Amino acid sequence: QDAIDRKEKRSETFKTAVHGLETVTPALKTEELGRRAPQWVRDNLVTMCMRCKEPFNAITRRRHHCRACGYVVCARCSDYKAELQYDGNRPNRVCQECFIFLTGHTVLEEREGKHKGILEKGAAEVSSRSLLCSSLQLLDKNGKGGTRGWFVIPQDDPLVLYIYAAPQDVRAHTSIPLLGYQVRDMPQSESRHLFQLAQSRQVFTFLADTEELKRRWMKALARSAAGITLPEEEED
């Protein structure tokens, strides 16, 4: 019964939904780490460790949650124990960063000095200050299959389209510089809302969930392709 009660209490804490642009999971303030139960990032919102950025897989790199900050991390990045005040000061599995903060201990594998690459921008952080972001599907060359992902045009990098596998990933898996591309509308067929980015022989075909979302993306992409960097509401 105690286990059931704890499970129900945690379930209430960890309930969160991602809809539309609501992609950011509220994070605990630094001073609250270990003192209050975190809101866990849902497993299906990430495809890679939120600390080391290595992709998850079903066998060798499984998902774990840091009990202090709620991040989804791999086994290697969560191989630490720290006492958490909200759980009666019992040792809990935490990530390396929370371990250092909560215990004051250092670890051998420091990542200090590692600079963020062009793709190492967190999806949630970028989405919160974006010109446009949403889920889209990037179709393959024959237009039948493709990969669904989270697409973002950041305010601070408005001429680039970043593509994430999931809306809470901490690293984009690719990016497309938009300057000079043409945006093409495609006739609606079988309720498929299609549009393209084309430049020379390079063509990307996208599938949006609705016609309204398709129009918004076509407008945003056309502005970026033309080199317009200001948000629409800031123009004269």
From TrEMBL:
Q: Which GO terms describe its biological process?
A: cytoskeleton organization; filopodium assembly
* Presence of keyword Phosphoprotein: yes
Among InterPro entries, the record links this protein to: FGD1-4_PH2, FYVE_RhoGEF_PH, PH-like_dom_sf, PH_domain, Znf_FYVE, Znf_FYVE-rel, Znf_FYVE_PHD, Znf_RING/FYVE/PHD
Pfam families listed in its UniProt record:
FYVE, PH
Keywords for this protein: Cytoplasm, Cytoskeleton, Guanine-nucleotide releasing factor, Metal-binding, Phosphoprotein, Repeat, Zinc, Zinc-finger
Compartments, as annotated in UniProt: Cytoplasm, Cytoskeleton
Molecular function (GO) terms for this protein are: guanyl-nucleotide exchange factor activity; zinc ion binding
Location of the FYVE-type domain: 43-103
Q: Where is the PH domain?
A: 129-226
Q: Name one GO cellular component term.
A: cytoskeleton
**What is the first-listed, main subcellular location in coarse terms?**
cytoplasm
Question: What is the protein name stated in its UniProt record?
Answer: FGD2 protein
